[in-house]
């Protein structure tokens, strides 16, 4: 039977929105759906097949979210209201306020915010109050990560000098400055050294892991605080983004990062980025962004040679007021062939073992520590979040269920934070993945846990010790 639609598609969308407003939680609806507009509908020729609705959304973020997270809920309701199978297409659509108030369609690659050069009045959000008063946005810097504490060698001299130059004269020479290389070679240390140093000279430096950037961006859109977001990221002299590989594949985040990047670059501000691989290998990174990175100074970070590794161990011992026989430093330096973090693990493990057993330092003991470490490596175990959970639970006299559960009492939640920290440190999981593994928590909860522990490690040597010892146990698969 030939059937025509009795419902006007525009009305159908309105009704759908009304129903979704009831069904979805308030935050979701307000953030992603309230401002959507009906742009068109193509009915299948026979009136029976699939009708395609085109819906305008505020920005590419909303588009991605509707497409990926809310698509099925929206389609289900619309199908019931409209009476046939439906598909939805979301398009970025902006009311063009400056001209005639009519829509501006299809411009789906524009910035959420205007580039600063346009010097337009800030219309991004009238509801939001004043941006924070001239205060430096929070930047969690580890005070230990300074240039002084970065031991140089032939292998990393050029990198080190470039980093210093960037800290002393931001945007003067190497902009953007990209450091890439494997885990535990000192990228974060150098980024934070640049931030620490430039802050000493009263530059405003903002260091943030890329997950933090993503988090802020999502919140800015959700809570409509885009003005503060822009203020935070575009009012700095140096923006240092760590582990940029985590924004690969996140189209809309890259989009906004690209605009932030351009805005800063035009304003002659310094951008520093760390990545675990060369920008050309960040496969999902948009070409535009990739070529921006490659246009700057791109340097890889290498494992320092043996002599330097020995010097690094000696500097650590000295910092802790311990003197190590050279033979021991050499043993450890020889044992760490992959990263300085590995070296740090060996060093801590050795101190912990010696202290606990009340044994004097000896080359034999150092050899033992290295050997244990090597046999763990030889088994080539990739550490999983589950392993981190069970080891952390065991050392805290808890169960894995305690860690992934809802109980937030002091001891449990501290252990949970430790496990989150170690999960990030030892596995390849991102914060969103970690959040999910910890009983479907959000990525910001995981980040927060990580941050708390990182902070406490700086302040509390005993805590740091304990944590690194646990870390070693997990690596050894104990
Ligand atoms: P990445 O960010 O590349 O994974 P990190 O910056 O976290 O590595 O470095 C791992 C550890 O090694 C940190 O504790 C850091 O201080 C230390 N480290 C790395 N390189 C050096 C170096 N050249 N001198 C002293 N310490 C270093
Ligand atoms: Mg790092």
What does this 3D model show about the protein?
- This protein has 478 residues and is α/β, with parallel strands linked by helices.
- It is built from 19 helices and nine strands.
- The protein has helices at residues 9-23, 26-33, 60-82, 157-168, 187-200, 210-222, 226-234, 251-266, 287-294, 306-319, 326-335, 340-357, 363-378, 385-395, 400-404, 410-426, 431-437, 443-459, 461-476; strands at 37-42, 51-57, 86-95, 103-105, 177-180, 205-209, 238-242, 270-275, 297-300.
- The strands form two sheets. The chain has a five-stranded parallel beta sheet with strand order 6-7-8-5-9, sandwiched between helices. It has a four-stranded mixed beta sheet with strand order 1-2-3-4.
- Strand 3 and strand 4 form a beta hairpin.
- Helix 16 crosses helix 18 (443-459).
- Residues 97-104 and 106-137 have low confidence and may be disordered.
- Magnesium ion binds next to helix 5.
Distinct small molecules: adenosine-5'-diphosphate, magnesium ion
Q: How large is the share of residues in beta strands?
A: 5-15%
Largest sheet: 5 strands, parallel
- Give the helices and strands as they follow along the chain: HHEEHEEHEHEHHEHEHEHHHHHHHHHH
First CA to last CA: what distance?
70 Å
What percent of residues adopt helix (DSSP H or I)? 40-55%
User: How many separate helices?
Assistant: 19
Supply the helix-strand structural class: alpha/beta
Strand order of the largest sheet: 6-7-8-5-9
Indicate the overall shape. globular
Rounded Rg: 26 Å
Q: How many strand segments?
A: 9
Low-confidence stretches: 97-104, 106-137
Mean pLDDT reading = 82
């Amino acid at each position: 039977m030939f059937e025509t639609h009795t419902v006007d598609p525009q009305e159908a969308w309105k009704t759908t929105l009304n129903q979704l407003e009831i069904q979805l939680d308030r935050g979701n609806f307000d953030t992603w759906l309230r401002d959507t507009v009906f742009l068109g509908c193509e009915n299948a020729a026979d009136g029976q097949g699939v009708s395609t609705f085109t819906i305008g959304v505020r920005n590419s973020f909303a588009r991605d979210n509707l497409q990926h997270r809310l698509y099925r809920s929206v389609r289900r309701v619309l199908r019931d209201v409209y009476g046939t199978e439906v598909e939805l297409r979301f398009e970025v659509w902006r009311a063009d306020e400056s001209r005639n108030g009519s829509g501006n369609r299809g411009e789906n690659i524009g910035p959420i915010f205007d580039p600063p050069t346009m010097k337009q009045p800030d219309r991004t959000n009238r509801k939001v109050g004043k941006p924070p008063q001239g205060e430096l946005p929070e930047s969690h810097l580890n005070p230990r990560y300074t240039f002084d504490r970065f031991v140089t060698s032939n292998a990393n001299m050029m990198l080190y000098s470039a980093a210093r130059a960037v800290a002393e004269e931001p945007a003067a020479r190497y902009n953007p400055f990209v450091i890439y290389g494997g885990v535990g070679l000192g990228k974060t240390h150098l980024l934070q050294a640049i931030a620490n140093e430039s802050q000493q000279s009263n530059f405003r430096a903002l260091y943030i892991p890329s997950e933090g950037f993503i988090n802020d961006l999502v919140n800015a859109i959700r809570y409509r605080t885009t003005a503060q977001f822009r203020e935070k990221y575009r009012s700095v002299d140096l923006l240092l983004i760590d582990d940029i590989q985590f924004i690969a594949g996140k189209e809309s985040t890259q989009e906004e990062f690209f605009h932030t990047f351009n805005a800063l670059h035009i304003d002659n501000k310094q951008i520093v980025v760390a990545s675990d691989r060369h920008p050309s290998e960040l496969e999902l990174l948009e070409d535009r962004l990739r070529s921006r990175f490659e246009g700057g100074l791109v340097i890889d970070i290498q494992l320092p040679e043996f002599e330097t590794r020995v010097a690094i161990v000696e500097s650590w011992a000295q910092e802790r007021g311990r003197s190590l026989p050279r033979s021991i430093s050499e043993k450890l330096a020889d044992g760490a062939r992959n990263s300085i973090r590995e070296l740090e693990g060996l060093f801590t493990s050795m101190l912990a073992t010696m202290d606990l057993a009340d044994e004097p330092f000896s080359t034999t003991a150092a050899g033992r520590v290295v050997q244990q470490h090597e046999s763990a490596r030889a088994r080539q175990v990739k550490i999983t979040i589950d392993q981190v959970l069970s080891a952390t639970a065991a050392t805290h006299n808890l169960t894995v269920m305690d860690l992934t559960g809802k109980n937030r009492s002091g001891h449990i939640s501290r252990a949970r934070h430790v496990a989150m920290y170690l999960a990030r440190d030892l596995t390849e999981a991102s914060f969103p993945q970690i959040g999910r593994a910890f009983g479907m928590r959000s990525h910001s909860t995981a980040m927060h846990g990580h941050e708390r522990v990182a902070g406490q490690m700086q302040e509390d040597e005993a805590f740091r010790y304990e944590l690194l010892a646990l870390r070693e146990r997990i690596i050894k698969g104990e």
